[in-house]
Amino acid sequence: MSAVRVLSWISRLAVITLAAALLFAASIAGVAPRIWGVAQSWRGGPVELPEFTELAMESRAVDSTGATIALFRRQNSQPIELAALPENVTAAFLAVEDRDFLHHNGVNARSLFRASVSNVASGAAQQGASTITMQVAKNEFLGGFERDFRYKLLQIHYALMLERRFSKDEILERYLNTVFFGNHAYGIEAAAETYFGKHAADLSVVESGFLAGLVQS
Q1: By CB neighbour count within 10 A (0-12 exposed, 13-18 middle, 19+ buried), where does 88 fall?
Q2: Residue pLDDT, tens place only, 9-31
Q3: Which residues of 106-140 are buried (b: 16+ CB within 10 A; e: fewer)?
Q4: CA–CA distances in Å: residue 185 to residues 13, 79, 109
Q5: What is this structure's pTM?
């Protein structure tokens, strides 16, 4: 091998090594603040689980025949008990939103780890990995919070507390009564009325699947 070729090979190796070092340094610089943020997330007082707020109810004014002549409501929310819903409704939401809902303790550790690695690598919250319990915690207790690492830790903490305090049925019922479906519809009963003009108890398998997919989209 000639001296010129050796020098050329050494130069290319040096350039590659320098580029790799710069890439590694950039990666560390990008990830380090996030790791530091997680390490400091414990600071602050203990977090207590607040009570659920009362669900918004509508009021109707009717005439002597029972016909509605006026409707008053803060938002389109019509609470319904879980027992009143057909199995195909709950099955659709569990299949789309949280397949392991009946078996985890509020957090799906495997999905959360996978999403966390992806989000750190991309530098953006592209994956949530939120269980139904975590979504209830988010909707109930974390409105207006900045979406940082402390937010995710609080969401996990609240989810674990919810699972200790409420049954799976109670958590699922709360979720189905508060999740947003668009078009000002909050909860499965309001969504069934808005999109299909019927009660949630009368939803078909296809209609249930549509509404479950609508939430995820």
Answers
A1: middle
A2: 666 666 667 655 655 554 544 44
A3: bbbeebbeebbeebeeeeeeeebbbbbbbbbbbeb
A4: 61, 11, 31
A5: 0.67
